[in-house]
Specification:
Helix content of chain A: 40-55%
Shape of chain A: globular
Structural class of chain A: alpha+beta
Number of helices of chain B: 14
Strand content of chain A: 5-15%
Oligomer: heterodimer
Radius of gyration of chain A: 20 Å
Helix content of chain B: 25-40%
Amino acid sequence: MIREWREKGYIMPAKMLKITMGALPSLIKVLMRHPIYVMKSNMAAKKNPVKYEKPSYDVPEYVEGMPYCKSNERYLRPTHLCNPRAKEIIAMANYLGAYKLPAWDFANNVFNFIKKNIKLAFVGLDREVDTLRRGTGTCIHQLSLFAALCRAGGLKARYKLYSLALVEPLYQNMIEVSPIMKSWYDALGSFMLHGTAEVYVDGKWVVADPTFTPEYEAAMGLPLAKLGDDPMGIWNYPLHGTVMALEGLPYGVGVAWNFLVNFIAKGERVKIDRSMNEARKYGKKILHEMGAEEYDASVRAKYQAKIPKITLEKVPSIMFE
Amino acid sequence: MLVQDVKTKLDEILHDYIPSPISNPAERALYEPKTFYGLPDKEANEYKYKAIKYAFQHHYENNRFYREMCRENDVSPDDIKSIDDFSKIPLITHRFFKDYPSGRDFAVWLANLMSTEVPKVVIKGKNPSFDDVIDAFSQAGVMVTYSSGTTGKFTFIPRDASTYKMGQYAIGRSAIEMLREWYEPDANGFLLFPNPKKTNIYVGKVTNVMYDLVKDVQVAIDRKITTQILRISMGVTFNFKEKMMSKMIKTASRKMNEDMVTRIVNWIEEMHRRKERIIFAGAPFILNMALDRLEKEGKTYEFGERGAVLTGGGWKIYEDKRLPVEVFRERVGKILGIPPHNCLDLYAMVESNGFLVHCPEGHYFHIPKNYFHVRVIDDEGEDVAYGEEGRFAFLDSIAMSYPGFISTGDKVRIHDECPVCGREGPVLEPEVERIKGEEIRGCAEEMRRIIMEE
């Protein structure tokens, strides 16, 4: 049982514990230094809450006998907050082409569904079906939904989590709008936890980063991410030594986060969500004017030149003993 | 001292840093001009054009990854026909130098980065640490200089002997030209950085030239600082042993800081008593600690024109407090009696060999325009207009061992001329900030994290 728990990631890995423990003192310090500001911010949010649009899709109805993956193999089985056997998940996986389409096409459908429909919002961590019903969530919510849908369709999926530094437009839109978040981020020099998913297709793990809708990416001047695009070096810079691949999320992972965004700093969460909503509206305009393909092609051309990759070549004068 | 006398005097003192013969346009641009900051634009541009075109051709021909980058951007040396074409030279993002592998691959990565011949380097062990590789390169004559941001990620820059010497000569000339009214070789220096002989942190390394510029040098941080120690100081630990080391470093810091401040204060006392000429060079927060002590003890001094302060690396003094430059100058004046025109700041970074120094008259950052071309660019990579803010980028002609065409994470504002001093050529405003979202960096911040117990 302990082995299974460890495999599933239920026991918090040392790295994650270290990241959390390292991040909490500065958060507490920031909150304790500005109690009146936080209180006012929460009251303002209560008076003027952020409006999340209803999802633009309907969750298909589950029909008895719909195929789904019953395997208990690693990366296919249910894990914490990622249940591929939930009825709505099975129904959606089938709707997106599970067991009908080739693996890549199905994974791509899942990726595009989440990317286009699940809007990034700083809500408390909850189950994959809650994310599906609500149409909003953090990157972790999105990854859980992605993994659950892929697993339901028989594709192995896992999480890749890390602490990261953001590029400037994202910092301005998500961090700077909240003085509390800004102080926290600046104290750490990074954001505590982000992740991408990985899905196992045609014999290899393929990166999936469905974090941002195309509208948000356009507003931030980022390329429109596709299945297989790694955001590292594009919009984020992971902290050295923090990257971890996990089958599932550990128990207790969302406790501090939920307490923060649902209670202590709800007002700050609203500010960030509102800022992202505004950005999406702006991005929508850009994509409408330019067309998604043209926008993507022009931005990608710029990004390619920014970080040249070195393909390491053997150097005869470097000798190893 | 007249500005042309600075060159004559320094060329005599720094003769070991000057190649014989001076053989290419980059060397000519550095060693020939009588002044770095006062050349007429026409003459400076002539030197700079030839030097940067030469450097571009050199990296294009000798550096595979940079050549590929140029090909992707459809640019070759033939396209650079005047200074106006400098905007075509592809800029490497500063993040590139942070994207390194570990172990043996780190050595191969460094070698692949270099545009000059890689000497024979022997790496021992199956999984060498960064410090093992750096030591091995050092033994082969290549200085792997580095800096670290707050995330513990390093920027590594390999400097061959020639690039390293040119960098040291450049910082010496840059600093003394702006402090020429103060300078005499019989001065005494206090380096508010790590001992250059005990670290490869660039800021420490490049200030090694100070030992040749003044008669006696004391150092504030006289212990060996490796990448491991620097990383642990940044709060990034990988195992139990490092955690313990981190705790020990922090515990020992208070006592070491007190000793360091005592040494500085005693030195000030002695220099004042002997009526010596002095300079403090380095991280402002360290001098600020000494000023705190002196203020607490109610002591003041009158060094006057015999004293100078050359700061560098950023103005953060505590985790959440930045020291305004003007306030610092006022304190230095009030407590040490050093006039504001002898209290200058220097802007530089591990990736470059260009040293921008405050003018004594207006404290604007002046660009050594004979060999170093500054671009201030917007998000699209286009040059911003004068008076505007943008990302600091540069074309460095004396970086021979790596392509010194780099866009940085710093935000600056550029003006077409100094509003105060009348020297020709563009200047930057006196204070530089990090672009939002870029990790906090700066040699002073590194020092602060190494020695502060907070």
